[in-house]
Amino acid sequence: MLPILDRCPGNLEPGHETYSPRCKAEMFGSRTKKVSHILPFPPPNNDSEYGRLFQENRQRISISGVQEKYSMGLVKNQLELVDRKGQYILKPIPGDLINRAFIPANEHVTMQIAKQVFSIETAANAMIFFNDGTPAYLTKRFDYKPDGTKYQVEDFATLLGKTEELEGANFKYNASYEDIGRLIKKYIPAAAVAMEKFFRLVVFNYLFSNGDAHLKNFSAIESPDGDYILAPAYDLMCTRLHINESELGLQEGLYKGALGSPSYNKFGIYTYDNFIEFGERLAIPPKRSSKIIEQMLQKIPNVEPLVQRSFLSEELKVQYMGHLREKEKRFALKI
């Protein structure tokens, strides 16, 4: 059944039956472009003439990760599967996870919260629906230049020299967030600015229970000036709605020794003191780290309206906010 909308499936602005003008400008380059939120074909698991096209498309797309991703292009005003130069990535519902039907909605609302509430630079994104009403997540690639060529992008697994061949299937989890910080200092000229952006993103991932924030979910991207900057955030979601995994994605945590710190030993969880120490290891003064955390906590009341307008089920909306409030309380714990 096709969805009947009362809010933009992109920025969740109320009063729209499809993408709002502001969303169209961000996603498709024009406020007046008539791009439908309904795709003209069924999802990839349907037995149809599109099954072969999906399979061929998936083999060609140059995006890492285990979730199915498909390359999309905007042909006139219609989103279509494309073989090359696709400027959008389509992520259908994946398999083998609880509440899997709401994974696109989870990623979508978390990305919107990051941008709208916390002013974190993110990849442009929206919900979209197959012609049978099945939801999917659509994101715009940020690695294309205006002339159609690509910016160089390197994820932090690559920058750390970690590969599956060298370290096994879990290679992208074998590090700490401090390790990423060291690489930011090494490769990004405006390191002080990038460090604060990175710190805010790690705090955000913790607050929103993103237990899959691994090395390949952070990248450095070539800037128009030819040097490197921190890439926009992507793959943000509350993984606790789908799997009971670690507090943070990297096995060594915030920094080496964090799991044996006085604060962690006392409370058994990451708390305020751990993040202040993490900030110091990123060369962020404690007063500045504290201010960033406080500013983020003050914005939490602005989260719920977006969650309520999201495409999560009513039950998962309650769970989503519950996980956030539980994490918020942890920042009040201090030695």
TrEMBL record:
Where does the signal peptide begin and end?
Answer: none
A Pfam family annotated for this chain is HipA_C
- The name this protein carries in UniProt is HipA-like C-terminal domain-containing protein
Taxonomy of origin reads:
Bacteria, Pseudomonadati, Bacteroidota, Chitinophagia, Chitinophagales
Q: Which organism is it from?
A: Flavihumibacter stibioxidans
| Transmembrane residue ranges | none
- What keywords were assigned to this record? Kinase, Transferase
The entry assigns this protein to a family as follows: Belongs to the HipA Ser/Thr kinase family.
**Annotated HipA-like C-terminal domain residues:** 61-301
PANTHER family cross-referenced by the UniProt entry: SERINE/THREONINE-PROTEIN KINASE TOXIN HIPA, SERINE_THREONINE-PROTEIN KINASE TOXIN HIPA
